[in-house]
Amino acid sequence: MSKRPNFDINAFITKKAKLDEKTSTAPQHSNAPNNIYLSTPVHPEQTLQIFLTQVRNAARKYNPAQTLPIFKPFCEVEARLGILKVPHSVPPRRVTSTGAKHVQGNLVKAFECSHQNPRCQMVSGVSRAHFSKWTASGLSELSPLAHALGVTSERGDLKQDLEEKEYVETVYSGYPNDRRVCYPGLHGSSHKSLVGKMESKEKLVTMDLTIPAANYDLRIALASETIVDPAVPNDPPPGWSVMRIKRRRSYTRRDRSIAWQIDVTEVTTTSRSTPTTTEVDFEIEVELQEKVLLQLINEENEENLKKMTHQLAQQLWWIMSQINPLVDALNVEETLRDHPDKYAVQLALAQCGALKKFIDARGTSRFESPIERPNDVPPAALSNIKFPGCMPVNFSRHNIDEIQRGANDAYYISEKTDGVRHFLVFTGKTAVLVDRAMKAKQPIPTKADQDPFSHIIDLIKPGTVFDGEVVMNRRGRIISNTNGESGYVRSQICCRSYYPTTSCAKELCQANRSGRIAVQCGRGTGYAMLP
C-alpha cells in the first residue's frame, strides 16, 4: 500500500460539496427558462441522493426472492455519460446549448429532465479525443481517471492505490424482449468453442440530468439482470442483428473507500446486414459495486440509509465532475468582489503608483512606500496611473538547470498557468488585488465578515506586492501543505515576481488557517483559496 500520508477522500468530497452547495444551487421556484428541459434546476448531489433512495425502494419491491436480506445481486446501478437530445429533432440537437446556465443570478450545474414530454433521448458515449484525454493513460500517470478515484499526488505508483482489470466480451443483440447473448473474449477469433449466456435487462428506475456547463450529460439507472440461458453453445441462436466487441477496463480503489467502479470501454459494432462496415464508440460508465448495492438494499435503519445515500451521491458527483469537468462554469470575476476597505484600496493603489514612479526614475530617486507612512494621506496622483506591470521575459528549457541550481537564492520552477493578471498588495491590515484596470478586488469570503487573506497578513511585510495571475481551478485539484493536510482549491494566485525580493515562501507554505493554504508558485508564492 502507499506510504503517502493518510488522506480521507470522503471527508474531502464532503468539504467540496459544501462549497458547491453555496455556489451552485438555484431556487426551485425561480423563473424558469423557456426551454422545457431547463425547467427543473437541481442541486446534483441532493438529487442523486433522492434517486438512490428510490433505487433502494424499487429494488426491494422488485426483489425476486421477496425476502430480506438479499445475498445475491439481481440488479445494477449504473451512471453513464452521453448527450441528451431532443427527440425527432432535425438535425439531432442537445436538449440545451452548451455553456453555464444561471437562474436568478445563481449558477445551476444540472437540470433534471426525466419527466418532460417528449422524453429526451440518450446517445451514450464520448468522443475519441475526450476518451483518450480522460482515460487512455490508465494507471501509468496521473489523469482525470485517477483524480476521480481520489488519487491526487504524482509521487509513487498509482497501482498502490488503484486496481485495474481488463475484460473483452462479444455481445450479440437484437433478440426479442431486449435479450442478448454474451461470450467471453473475442468470439469466433479462434477454433476454441466458447460457452455464452443469454441475459435480459429491464430498466426499473431512470433519471436524466443535463449538465450544460459540461461536455456531456448524465443518465443513471437501476436495471434488473436475469440469466435466461446460462449455457449458450458456440454458435449464437438465430435472430441477432448487431454484434458488439467490448474492450473494457475497470478501475476501483484498493481500499474500497470509494464505492463506485469506473468502466471505460471501446465498443466495435458490426451490423449483420452490413458485415463489412464497423463503428467504434467510446463509453464511460460508473457502476455501484455489488457489495455496496446489497448493503443499500438491505439497510433497514432510516438514519443509516440517509447517511449512506448522502455519501454515495457525493462520491458519484465527485467522480463525474473529474471525468466530465464543467467548462466555463465559473470565471475569475465570479469569485472576486470590490474590496470593502476604501482606505486599504487607496493605500494599495498608491503603492502601485509609487512603484511605477520609482521604475520610471531609473534609479535616480529613492523609493518611498505610502504603506510605510499609514498616517499620511497618499497623494491622489499616485492612484491615477496605468497598470505598472511589465511582460515577463521568456527563457528556454536549457535555462532551467541554471536557474534552479544557481546561487543560494535560486528560483523555484513550476508550470505556468494562465489566468487574469493582478497585483496582490499587502497593506498591513489586509491585502488588495489590483487588476489591469486599476480596480481593487478581494476574493469573495466564505463568511460575510471574514477577510480571505487574514491567515497570512501577519506573515507578509506590509508593502509587499505580488505580481501574478488569479487562476480558476475547476477540476477541484487537491493541494497539500507541508504537514500533509489537504484542501480543495477554488482559485489561486500564480505569481511571476514580488516586491520586496526576500523569500517568504516557506512561511507561507506552512500557513493553513481558516481552511486556506498558501503555496509556492513560480518566483515567490502562490495563494490558494480553500472553502
From TrEMBL:
The keyword Lyase does not apply. It catalyses: a 5'-end triphospho-ribonucleoside in mRNA + H2O = a 5'-end diphospho-ribonucleoside in mRNA + phosphate + H(+). The keyword Hydrolase applies. One of its GO terms (molecular function) is mRNA guanylyltransferase activity. GO terms for biological process: 7-methylguanosine mRNA capping. Its EC number is 3.6.1.74. InterPro entries: CYTH-like_dom_sf, mRNA_cap_enzyme_adenylation, mRNA_triPase_Cet1, mRNA_triPase_Cet1_sf. Residues 76-288 form the mRNA triphosphatase Cet1-like domain. Residues 392-474 form the mRNA capping enzyme adenylation domain. SUPFAM superfamilies: CYTH-like phosphatases (SSF55154), DNA ligase/mRNA capping enzyme, catalytic domain (SSF56091). This is mRNA 5'-phosphatase. It comes from Fistulifera solaris. The lineage of its organism: Eukaryota, Sar, Stramenopiles, Ochrophyta, Bacillariophyta.
